[in-house]
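Recap quiz, item 2
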Amino acid sequence: MIRVENLYKSFDNKTVLKNISVEFEKGKTNLVIGRSGSGKTVLLKSIVGLFEVDRGNIYYDQRNFVKMKPKERKNLRKEMGMVFQGGALFDSLTVEQNVGFQLKLFTNKTKQEIAERVSFCLDRVKINKESFKSFPSEISGGMQKRVSIARAIVLEPRYLFCDEPNSGLDPETSLVIDNLIHEITIDLDMTTIINTHDMNSVMRIGEKVFFISEGKLQWEGTKDEIMKSEDKHLQNFVFANNMYKKYR
Amino acid sequence: MDFFFHVGRYFLFLGRVFSKPERKKIFFRNIFQEIGTLGVNSVGLVIIMSIFMGAIITLQMVYNLTNPFLPVFLIGLGNRELLILEFSSTILSLLLAGKIGSNITSEIGSMRVTEQIDSLEIMGINSAEYLIFPKIIAILFIFPFLYILSVFFGLVGGLVVGTSFGAISPTDYINGLQHAFIPYHFSFSIIKMLFYGFLIATIPSYYGYYVKGGAFDIGKASMSAVVNTDILILVFDLVLTQLLFK
């Protein structure tokens, strides 16, 4: 479980996050939705500590991340996995080296054990063996995202963060990525937070949905409740697509 | 104010760079990789530049020092002193700041804008130490060798061109090289190279590490990194010459 309390974050006197308080549940896919520029990415990056918050607290299962010393934060980060918008794979390393990177650095596993774990994780995200030796630039965007997921789960993290995992992907690949993240969340009993503005993802895997508008938490509920919500901001966002108006 | 902001952030950045490596084995492997990328890949450029500079210095000496009252061996001596004291250390470093510096800024800058550095941080890795510390060690290790290589090929270039143009005999040239040699000049330049190497490794890394934006900003950062490194090399040349060469 991750709990955010009264979070504020500003850049150059512009307040981006205003008094955000949310609780992300364990074993569920928690989706943060909102327009581009609403503060979703800033919220996610503040939660993982890439941005220092101005005010507020972030609890990882009762451990206050904001008040932690650098060494404690470093240790906690070994329990995190993150899938970035662009994949953020290391372009000088092959697919298998990317996935095995943390195993080499943080574990005492033998080469054989590392190879087995890497192979397991890549199989889990359905990457075929022929691509193991490829560099990120040699594989498709969808495959890069899947490798990124494999890299994020290689140390079996307790917390998974995904920043717009479907951006730039076709609907079919998006479906694969969504299902994959959902399955892994259940299998590993992780607390997963996904930033997205893709309503298809919301309707597929949005067990808990948080709607951010202009840096504030505007609404929260489940994917079923979202259609019945009377919140005007949320309606404008959700029903921007006519398909969902018909669905309603 | 901007100047003080950058100076302050640069020293804080160095504080992060000089941290204990996560895994020594990986750290040493990265050092060897950087020696290859930043050092060995520069050997060709150093040799070509040094040969031509040695040759040009010799020809300039021949054209400007032709005087019956001056011994001919002064050409070899002048070439040696110019190479040892300034060209193979300072001028070479100015050129390497362009080659190696822009390489470092664009590599680290690309990693920044594609979130690869954020990715390292999320893994609990000190990205500054992991990416930059091996580069500093590699450059400090390889720079004295590049200096020695440059002096050698500069002298060879001078010998080949000077003798083939009939301006000086090989014996006079070699006599000039051996005349009044002061070994301290060599040590002085090696010390300078270590300072320059440190600047070339850290300033472009700093610019790359804090770049924001996209390809255009990486280009701008590379340019600023090279210009500022060059200026600081010249400032350090002045200061070190004053301090160490009295």
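Chain B touches chain A at residues 22-23, 26, 110, 114-116, 118-119, 121-126 (CB under 8 Å).
Chain B has a mean pLDDT of 93.
End of item.
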